[in-house]
Design a protein that fits this description.
heterodimer, A: mainly alpha, MetI-like fold, B: mainly alpha, 14 helices, 2 strands, about 5% strand, globular, transmembrane helix (chain A), membrane (chain A)
């Protein structure tokens, strides 16, 4: 069918697609433009001059909210989530390929993690940590052990919030690993084994280099989904908020283009991560083809 | 999200010699070790929390604390007055409002998602172009949802671009008030955020359709519409089902989009749970969460009954 001339349907569908892309990117581009609003400008068009006024206001801090601390927390949590997602999903992918008893149940659990509403997951984790806190406090009262007496809460960025983020990023990572391993021939590993490589050597010198582009893909999901996560974090974060949570709060209180400047900044971080990931994938694929690892 | 099939074990041959059996056992142990961290995460942060939520939903509470004593009161509170057919109870009204948003969003994302996926799969001719356009559709998925929501403010606001343009053209005299902070705005934001969840599985299902089938339909004299309706659509059903499950569960449990785009004025099930959490009424929130989970599972069960997902995959 590829040699037939283009029909009218093609042009209509192409127009629909173009409109969809405009719908997808248009609004974000609008706030990108409006974040350079002049000092007298408001939340809507027209532009009252062009300035970086709102970015410098942002740099100085948004009212009582310490936006830069939240930014730092989200960045660090995103990086930790990214690393753990790649490692856990990669090894789980290997295990699923070998096959093990209970693999069906674990897969069902991973899928459930995607489709159970985020607010339910978040509430569950919040409750779990509250019950843990209660148990620790009860233990402290019962035993009188001094190291338990000052217990505040077990909830935090790298406990409950990290767990909540992993329930969202790991299913995506696992599904990517499935798709990848379905197309990955065991012949490469067998060849390595025949040449005398140990299991660990086969992994580091054969499997990981061949799968590197896909692992970058898992990392991309891991970081960006965590950096922007909101619903699952909401009840599982404890005292100090992540950036998306602060942003959600600001939507009701900030009525200046400062919030657009913040939006431009977060989008820029995401865009940079996406750009770097895609470039890394392209570079790894080129290198792979050049080294003759896999037929391009 | 692209390939839901479980990968086949690399070699499933039954071990014969005892040496092979110990080797097999070693492989099994290694597999458990490798899957362990992932299993632990889902156990500690999904399975146990859900079990605890179920447990706490039967507990009593007062203003200060939750009390581990069995009661059905939390569920009774949810359904209070719901047997009265003439006057809808709060819970029924909240669910109706959420279901309405859900249906509107589902229909819109399906229509848009199917069209876009169809264009990508059957009208874009080179693999490279397909990949580029596909990425173009997915990139926003990796950026902030809240930012993508507030980016509608300059467009839909009272003095926004849409109202200004319509007034400039002389089509309306006064700005339309209900563009922002309304059901319309919420649905628009949902479609904006979640159409990607339809595009990806539908495109994936379409990409797997044997092109010879399309050729055969064409040779047998089917028109473009007939091919679409009788060949492509039935073969795309699993993709549609997966996309629908994603969109429906995302919308049913949502409280952020409804909050931001609805100006904190529109009721939704997720919002009820969030508000109860903020008042520290954990057992009540837990009971509501269980009812929501049950409702979502019912919808998914209905969808998977329509289409035998496991067979289709």
């Amino acid at each position: 069918m590829n040699d037939r001339p283009r029909t009218l349907a093609f042009y209509v569908l192409a127009a629909v697609f173009a409109l969809y892309v405009l719908f997808l990117y248009g609004p974000t581009l609008t706030i990108l433009v409006l974040s350079f609003q002049g000092p007298q400008g408001g939340l809507t068009f027209p532009l009252n001059g062009v300035s970086t006024h709102w970015f410098s206001r942002l740099w100085a801090g948004v009212g009582v909210v310490d936006i830069w601390a939240a930014f730092g927390r989200s960045l660090r949590l995103g990086l930790v989530t990214m690393v753990l997602s790649v490692v856990f999903a990669f090894f789980a992918g290997l295990a699923f390929r070998k096959g093990f008893r209970g693999s069906g149940a674990l897969f069902a659990l991973a899928v459930a993690s995607l489709i159970v509403p985020s607010i339910v997951v978040s509430l569950g984790i919040g409750l779990e940590f509250r019950l843990i806190d209660d148990a620790i406090k009860a233990a402290a009262a019962a035993t009188g052990w001094s190291f338990l007496q000052d217990h505040g809460t077990a909830m935090g960025l790298y406990t409950s919030a990290l767990g909540a983020h992993l329930t969202w990023t790991l299913p995506f990572g696992l599904l990517i690993m499935f798709a990848v391993f379905n197309r990955f021939s065991p012949a490469y590993e067998e060849a390595a084994r025949d040449l005398g490589a140990s299991g660990a050597q086969t992994l580091t010198h054969v499997v990981v280099p061949i799968l590197a582009p896909s692992l970058v893909g898992v990392a991309l999901f891991g970081f960006t989904l965590s950096f922007d996560e909101l619903a699952r974090t909401s009840q599982a974060i404890g005292g100090r908020n992540t950036l998306p949570l602060e942003l959600q709060g600001l939507t009701t209180t900030v009525t200046t283009p400062e919030i657009y400047a913040l939006g431009t900044l977060t989008t820029a971080v995401s865009a940079a991560v996406i750009g770097v990931s895609l470039c890394a994938v392209l570079w790894l694929q080129k290198r792979r083809a050049r080294l003759g690892l896999v037929k391009a | 999200m692209t390939d839901l099939a479980l990968p086949a074990p690399a070699d499933a041959a039954a071990p014969a010699a005892p040496g092979l059996r110990t080797e097999e056992r070693r492989r099994q142990r290694l597999a458990y070790l490798q899957a362990g961290p992932l299993a632990l995460v889902f156990l500690v942060f999904l399975a146990i929390p859900l079990a605890l939520t179920l447990m706490v939903s039967f507990w009593e509470y007062n203003e200060y604390e939750i009390i581990p004593a069995f009661t059905l009161q939390n569920y009774r509170d949810i359904f209070e007055g719901c047997l009265n057919a003439s006057d809808l109870c709060t819970t029924a009204r909240t669910y109706l409002s959420t279901l309405k948003l859900c249906a509107l969003t589902w229909a819109s994302t399906l229509l848009v998602g199917f069209t876009v996926a169809y264009f990508l799969a059957f009208h874009v001719r080179t693999r490279t172009m397909q990949t580029v356009l596909f990425l173009l559709c997915t990139i926003p998925f990796w950026t902030s949802n809240v930012i993508r929501m507030i980016s509608w403010i300059p467009l839909l606001g009272r003095n926004g671009l849409v109202n200004d343009t319509l007034m400039g053209l002389g089509l309306i005299r006064a700005p339309i008030e209900g563009l922002l902070y309304s059901d319309f705005a919420v649905t628009l934001a949902f479609v904006h955020l979640y159409t990607v969840f339809m595009i990806v599985p539908i495109f994936n299902a379409m990409a797997r359709i044997d092109r010879a089938l399309i050729e055969a339909a064409y040779d047998a004299g089917a028109s473009g519409w007939q091919t679409l309706w009788s060949v492509i659509l039935p073969l795309t059903k699993p993709g549609i089902a997966i996309g629908s499950i994603f969109v429906i569960t995302l919308v049913m449990g949502d409280f952020v989009t409804v909050g931001v785009m609805g100006g904190q004025q529109i009721a939704s099930v997720g919002k009820v749970i969030q508000v109860q959490m903020s008042y520290l009424q954990f057992p009540a929130a837990a009971a509501n969460a269980m009812v929501l989970l049950g409702a979502v599972m019912l919808i998914i069960a209905g969808l998977t009954r329509l289409i035998d997902l496991r067979r289709e995959l």
